[in-house]
Amino acid sequence: MVNILERVYRRLPSDPKTQRGKRVAAVPPDLAGDIDQWREVAIDLNPESLVFPSERGTVLSRDNFLRRNIHSKLEQVGLGWVNFQVLRRTQASLGHKEGVDPKAAADQRGHAIGVAIDTYTMTDLETRRQAVTTLEEALQIEPIRVFEVTR
Questions:
Q1: Beta carbons within 10 angstroms of residue 105's beta carbon
Q2: How confident is the model at residue 33 (pLDDT cuts 50, 70, 90)?
Q3: How far is residue 23's CA from residue 116's CA, in Å, rounded to a whole number?
Q4: Across residues 101-108, what is the average pLDDT?
Q5: What is the pLDDT of residues 36-63, one digit of tens each?
Q6: What average pLDDT does this structure show over 25-46?
C-alpha cells in the first residue's frame, strides 16, 4: 500500500485537490517488490525521501518523465500520442470491462464514483454492441408492422 498525503502540482508539494485525494492506495505484489528493490539502491534511503526523484534529487517533473521515459516506448508501438489522461482512462475502462468493483476503482484513484464512471470510464464498441444485442434478444423484437387506419 501507499499512503497518499500530498500531491505534486507544478513541481511543488501541495495538498490533494479533494479530501478523497488523501487515501491509502493498493499496490499489486509484483509492483511492490519492484519498488522495494528500487528503494534498496536509492541514493537517499530515508523513509521520507522521494521514491522517484529527478537526477538532481528534486521532485520529478511529470511532463519530463512522460517525454523522456514513456513516450519513447509508446512511439515504438504507434502510441506516441498517449498522455497521462489517456493512461488514466485506459486503466479505468479496462478495470470496468474486467468487472472491477466501481467503488474500489474510484477509491483507488481518489475520485467519487460518479467521476470514476462518468469521466474516466469509457466502453469499447464491442461491449456496446453486446449490450444492445442482449437487450434485443431479451425483448425478442419483431419487425414493426404499419397498418393503415381508415375511418
A1: 19
A2: very high
A3: 15
A4: 90
A5: 898 888 888 887 788 888 888 888 888 8
A6: 89
Q: Cell triple for residue 74?
A: 509508446
Cell triple for 81: 500520442
Per-residue CA distances from 60 to 22, 31, 54, 117, 124 (Å): 20, 19, 5, 30, 34
Closest residue by Cα to residue 96 from 119, 79, 74, 80? 119
Q: pTM of this prediction?
A: 0.68
All cell numbers assigned to 138: 431479451
**In 3D, which of 35, 21, 15 has the Cα closest to residue 109?**
21
CA distance to 102, 118, 119, 142, per residue, from 126 (Å)? 20, 19, 20, 23
Q: What cell numbers appear for 142 in the block?
A: 419483431
- Give the strand pairing for 2-4 and 7-9: unpaired
Cα–Cα distances (Å) from 23 to 51, 56, 87, 113, in that order, read: 17, 28, 20, 15
